[in-house]
Amino acid sequence: MIKKGSRLLIALFLLFAGLLPISPVSAHTDNSEGFSKISGEPGKLRYELMLDYFELGRVVMLDAMPNDPVPELQRKLEDNRQAIADYVHSNLKIFINGEAAAGELVHTGMDTRIGRLYANLVLEYPNPSGSEAVEVNYGIFFDDNDELHRNIAAYQWGGKEGQYVFSSGNRDLPLGETWFVGQAVRFIQLGFHHIMIGLDHILFVAALVLTSRTVKDVLKTVTIFTLAHSVTLGLTAWNVISVPPEIVEPLIALSIAYVAVEAFIIRLNKARPYVVFGFGLMHGIGFAGALEMTGSFKASSILPLAAFNIGVELGQLLVICAMFLVMLLLRKSRWYRPVEVAAMVSVFAFGFFWYWERMLA
């Protein structure tokens, strides 16, 4: 007999799995991630800032809707240019030689990244003396919109390159100064966070576990997937390869649907290791979308990339352990097959839905 607590867990799992296909949830459930690129030019500092379009719209009242056409969204950026500039200047401070620099918003545009729409803002700050003593204080969204917001920054300044993650507890960045341990911890947290908010990646890993028959199969499959995505994560982050998101994102969604179909049609697929490796390569390119490296391979970029990958692996490990717990509870019960079918149908529905959503975007 199954204990009462186990029956409740099974019922909740079945209910959740059965409702998944009809829930229009995004593949990424966190819309508050931004990117910065900071560089020096003769007589000035250039700050390229990417912010989630609709998160920005909350604080400057863009009155924009997700189904608005792109030209209309761009027009609303231009119409509210001064309000955007006022907000950014109030929450992003640049100090040169200890004094606040007066910046100017010189460009407003739009970009798509990790399946989200971003406002691409370019600011310039005068630095006529060419001083390298620059500190950035980043406070966008933290106090008025989302305390969990983070911004992944890359800088090239004074002959030095580096990466940094702004968060509510880490708002200050003196350019050129590096704290290796603190930097590693922040990128581990970023990698873990990215896998946890990426429902598409979570479902893919979960499906791999569900469709593996033994512990040995799980370890083999996850190892192959990890090796593959680690390769393309590094190559993409360092701009060795570049694949447009409009190609990668639909393929990632298709990989989810494929694994679900495989569970019912190709149970003993000898080519599975090669298929998993191929899908892992695509997911690695998707993971790299959450990073902002400073170009070609440099020793200074090894640490953040390795730390980010460790965070991703920790996230995957958590998903795998959770799936094993569920499987152990259900494996010998009469509920196991119905739960497996409901889960795989839900995984397929999500993957297929995301595929067409991304193809038509």
Give a structural overview:
It is a single chain. By secondary structure, this protein is of the alpha+beta class. It folds into two domains: 4-28 and 198-360; 33-178, no CATH class. It contains eleven helices and ten strands. The strands form two sheets. It has a six-stranded mixed beta sheet with strand order 5-6-2-1-8-9. Strands 4-3-7-10 form a four-stranded antiparallel beta sheet. Helix 6 (199-210) crosses helix 10 and helix 8 (245-265) runs antiparallel to helix 9. The protein is elongated, with a radius of gyration of 22 Å. It starts with a helix and ends with a helix. 39% of the residues are buried. Mean pLDDT is 80; it is low at 1-26.
Number of strands: 10
Physical arrangement of strands within the biggest beta sheet: 5-6-2-1-8-9
Summarize the main sheet.
6 strands, mixed
Bulk shape = elongated
Q: Which class of secondary structure composition applies to the elements?
A: alpha+beta
Radius of gyration: 22 Å
List segments where confidence is low: pLDDT < 50 over at least 5 consecutive residues. Answer: 1-26
Number of helices: 11
The portion of residues forming beta strands comes to: 15-25%
The overall number of domains is 2
How do the helices and strands follow one another from N- to C-terminus? HEEHHHEEEEEEEEHHHHHHH
Helix content: 40-55%
Cα distance, first to last residue?
Answer: 49 Å
